[in-house]
Design brief:
Strand content: 5-15%
Order of helices and strands: HHHHHHHEEEHEHHEHEHEEH
Strand order of the largest sheet: 6-5-4-7-8
Number of domains: 3
Radius of gyration: 27 Å
Structural class: alpha/beta
Length: about 400
């Protein structure tokens, strides 16, 4: 029995630590996933709290996992883990049964797993934690109370410090489709092995005062425009497709007249993209930094663009700055959230390939990329683009 308890304790502890660390690498990712759940449930008013909830949950998983491994305060953490895993099981079960959201985010973007696997994993963990709570008398601390307490204090500090670092300087391991080395244009395409949804087109017509329903391939033999009066049509999915969404969705750049300039921007030999989702949360420190970057890029004839979900605030933000003539494009905020895990976030592109990306705190490092870039002969024509400032 003691051996069984030890093995299950190690497995459970390691799983929680791994889960917590993977999500702590990108706390904003879990925050956005929480917002998806709230949207599905029609719960409003919690979006401003999801990042704090994400950080606390990730830290707790790491702390509780180590507490289980070290045998520290087992009675307390045993019940806390049981409460947490029951909650997780409800979430993954809901996702598995309803299909929304599509992914529970249990292991973040670095290890996406199906809702079925997530649910079964949580059911297994629930059973293991129940077993540990039942047999907690066999769990003994590995070290003295003083040493373990000091170790747990250090683990707690590090769990929060690591998340502060990833939120400030971008994830340590980038698992997003906009990661360094990826071609944005290619990631906007449907995967080669995509299987589309199978749908049946169904029509509803009125005949003799009664509604009749039939599919597109089974029109009635006596069908005619004089006999049948059209009511409506609908498409019914009879078999869900597989892998039928591109990794990058909603990345479309346009200005006031909604001219799509996405491929124009991605086709440039070199380009600087500054993502600012919300100007109200970006502060003002980025302006001085970007002034130097913009000047360095302009000296090399490298175009710079500001990508934002708030085009209305862009004008006042750039007005009176050294980059007042910068091109500003609007983009869906969901696409910006995926591309930019900091606000602001800056990219250096070569023909649409992400060569480097930096958070607002380190955005000046992009000057080194600009200095290494060859000088372009002429500033690219913007006739096909649609800048807000033209």
């Amino acid at each position: 029995m003691k051996i069984s308890v030890t093995l299950i304790r190690i497995l459970t502890g390691v799983l929680f630590i791994f889960s917590g660390l993977v999500k702590a690498n990108d706390p904003l990712g879990l925050s956005y996933k929480m917002q998806e759940f709230f949207e599905v449930w029609g719960v409003h008013g919690f979006n401003s709290w999801t990042l704090l909830m994400s950080v606390l949950m990730n830290a707790f998983e790491i702390i509780a996992g180590f507490a289980l491994l070290l045998g520290w305060r087992i009675k307390l953490f045993g019940w806390l883990l049981l409460t947490l895993i029951v909650f997780f099981t409800f979430l993954t079960g809901y996702t598995y049964i309803t299909g929304t959201p599509k992914n529970c985010g249990c292991f973040g973007d670095c290890l996406p797993i199906t809702s079925k696997v997530s649910f079964l994993k949580d059911v297994a963990l629930t059973l293991m934690i129940l077993f540990l709570v039942w047999k907690q008398k066999y769990i003994r601390p590995l070290f003295s109370e003083k040493i373990t307490t000091i170790a747990m204090l250090g683990i707690t500090i590090l769990s929060f410090l690591f998340q502060w670092y990833t939120l400030t300087y971008l994830p340590v391991i980038d698992c997003l489709p906009f990661k360094k080395g990826n071609s944005i244009s290619e990631k906007m395409k449907m995967p080669a092995n995509a299987v589309p949804d199978s749908t049946v087109i169904t029509f509803i017509y009125k005949k003799g005062g009664k509604e009749v329903e039939f599919t597109a391939d089974k029109f009635p033999a006596d069908f005619s425009a004089t006999t049948y009066e059209f009511v409506k049509r609908y498409d019914k999915i009879i078999r869900k497709g597989k892998n039928n969404e591109p990794p990058i969705k909603g990345f479309a750049l346009s200005g006031d007249s909604n001219v799509d300039s996405t491929q124009f921007v991605l086709a440039q030999p070199s380009a600087i993209l500054l993502f600012i989702e919300k100007f109200s949360e970006a502060g003002t420190g980025w302006k001085n930094k970007f002034s130097g970057i913009y000047a360095a890029a302009k000296a090399k004839n490298i175009p710079s663009y500001i990508i934002t979900a708030e085009p209305g605030d862009a004008h006042s933000a750039v007005n009176g700055t050294a980059f007042a003539d910068v091109q500003v494009f609007k983009c869906d905020f969901k696409a910006i959230e995926t591309a930019a895990r900091s606000n602001p976030c800056i990219y250096y592109l070569q023909k649409g390939i992400v060569m480097n990306k930096y958070s607002g705190k380190t955005m000046q490092r992009i000057k080194a990329d600009i200095q290494r870039a060859p000088k372009m002969e002429n500033i690219p024509s913007i006739q096909v683009s649609d800048s807000l400032n033209q």
